[in-house]
Design brief:
With 471 residues, this protein is α+β, with helices and mostly antiparallel strands. The protein folds into 3 domains: 161 residues, Aminopeptidase; 178 residues, Alpha-Beta Complex (Phosphoribosyl-aminoimidazole Synthetase, Chain A, domain 2); 106 residues, 2-Layer Sandwich (60s Ribosomal Protein L30, Chain: A), CATH 3.30.1330. The protein has 13 helices and 23 strands. Strand 12, helix 9 and strand 13 form a beta-alpha-beta unit. The longest helix is centred in the N-terminal third of the chain and has 18 residues.
Length: 471
């Protein structure tokens, strides 16, 4: 039995283990790189004549460049490909692939080239790429298209026809779909928030100046890190009130735990955050002998609530965040913790930013991440948003991909006339990082002016403010 893809087979109930036809791994030594460059010279210079003496360029000298090599069972080099960030300086999530090469004796019917391309795509996404492109020889565009790449435009490289192609990365769309997509169908007909407030973080209580907000903490987080879950129960609700320009006045909690000892850990986090934010816990409910859970309701007051659905085409998009702190231990890449190190005065000042600036629309960044939350703000406003990736302030310790998809502690998206910039607090950073325009969804804009789709339609299906919900 012959095996060309390196997988074992089952024959007559017996597992037959075979030697892989090839393996793909990152180049780890100078000798690896020298062999890869030699193979490129043999193919691109000697065989194809694309270059006169050498095909090396600045990307080969970039220490961030990653080279993946395909080797046969005996260690012989069969092919390789490289990938690297596209711009100098901080990695903003824009990566390019190139110099895909397969040895002449290893080309026909082996699938090595396709395997290298797949490996490069996987490696790029794992490295945090949000845009991944390659310029491929025109003869190979069919291979790339078959692998799921999108054709962009014809280009010339070394005087030969090539095609610019893009690998679609659905990171933000998948996150938004997983966290928010069912809401439209589930909540249809409930008249959420009243006219003008569909999709908001809180809801104005009719006939009063009271704003109510309610959030449940993911059960797995409560089990894994109960003190942090308790803190977050306060944090996310105060942020919800802050997004509507409301001043918090009190909290109600519902705590579920297997025993009193575990409940005490959840309540310890609640108590610490309640004291830090200066918002009292007014009452609640506790239940024991059940799986862990936490839900917190917050009450605030404002006579002028700021809607999430108030953005208009032509409004500027601003991002305001606390960049202090670090990844929460055990939640790297997913949850940023700046608030536990802030004083009460600092916390109160940052949660008053929306009330003080009174933008046309605001929404605090939730578990849907910055891009997903922006998608909800745009959806509620009945328009589209463009986000300048390189303009979004972020901590040095966070990659662009992680920062734009994580829960960032305190971060606020606002929309307003470009002539009315947001004034941040002493410990927050604000930047204009995009705009709103006619259409739907969220597009990412890159330093070369190119736009890539992040979210192509609505996030929740709740529709625009003032319109009936739709599924």
């Amino acid at each position: 039995m012959s095996v060309v893809d390196g997988l074992g087979s089952v024959l007559l109930g017996r597992v037959e283990v075979t030697t892989p036809a090839w393996t793909i791994e990152a180049a780890g030594t100078r000798a690896d790189l020298a062999a890869y460059h030699q193979l490129r010279r043999e193919v691109f210079v000697d065989e194809q004549g694309l270059f006169t003496t050498s095909d090396t360029d600045d990307t080969d000298d970039d220490p961030r460049t990653i080279v993946l090599l395909a080797r046969g069972p005996g260690g012989e080099l069969l092919g390789g490909v490289r990938l690297a960030p596209a711009v100098a300086g901080a990695d903003i999530g824009w990566w390019t692939g190139g110099r895909l090469v397969v040895a002449a004796a290893a080309r026909r019917g082996t699938g090595i080239g396709a395997s290298l391309v797949r490996a490069a795509c996987a490696h790029a996404e794992q490295a945090g790429a949000l845009r991944f492109e390659a310029t491929v020889q025109a003869a190979n565009d069919v291979l790339f298209a078959r692998l799921g790449w999108q054709r962009l435009r014809p280009v010339q490289v070394a005087g030969a026809p090539h095609v610019q192609m893009r690998w679609p990365i659905p990171r933000f769309a998948a996150q938004a779909h997983a966290t928010k997509a069912p809401l439209g169908g589930l909540l249809a007909g409930l008249h959420l928030g009243g006219a003008g407030y569909i999709g908001d973080d809180g809801v104005p209580v009719p006939g009063t100046d009271v704003i109510a907000a309610c959030d449940a903490i993911v059960a797995s987080l409560v089990e894994r890190d109960p003190e942090w879950a308790g803190w977050c129960g306060v944090l996310v609700n105060v942020n919800d009130l802050a997004a509507m320009g409301a001043t918090p006045v009190g909290l109600l909690d519902a705590v579920a735990a297997r025993d009193a000892s575990f409940a005490a850990r959840i309540i310890a986090g609640l108590r610490a955050a309640s004291q830090a934010y200066g918002v009292p816990v007014l009452g609640g409910h506790a239940q024991f002998g059940v799986p862990a859970g936490l839900t917190v309701t917050a009450l605030g007051r404002t006579r002028n609530p700021i809607p999430a659905g108030g953005a208009l085409a032509g409004h500027a998009l601003s991002f305001t965040a606390d960049l202090g702190g670090s990844w929460r231990s055990g939640h790297t890449g997913r949850q940023w913790d700046s608030t536990t190190s802030r004083s009460s005065a600092e916390l109160r000042a940052m949660t008053a930013i929306v009330a003080r600036n009174a933008p046309a629309a605001a929404k605090d960044v939730s578990m849907a991440g910055t891009v997903g939350t922006l998608g909800m703000l745009a959806e509620a406003s009945g328009c589209a948003a463009v986000l300048d990736v390189a303009a979004v302030p972020r901590p040095p310790a966070a990659s662009a991909a992680d920062w734009l998809s994580c829960f960032p502690g305190f971060a606020m998206l606002t929309a307003d006339d470009p002539a009315r910039p947001i004034t941040p607090s002493a410990v927050t950073t604000t930047a204009v990082c995009g705009e709103f325009r006619a259409g739907r969804g969220v597009a990412l804009r890159w330093p070369d002016g190119e736009l890539t789709d992040a979210i192509t339609a609505g996030v929740t299906g709740l529709g625009a403010a003032g319109q009936p919900a739709s599924s």
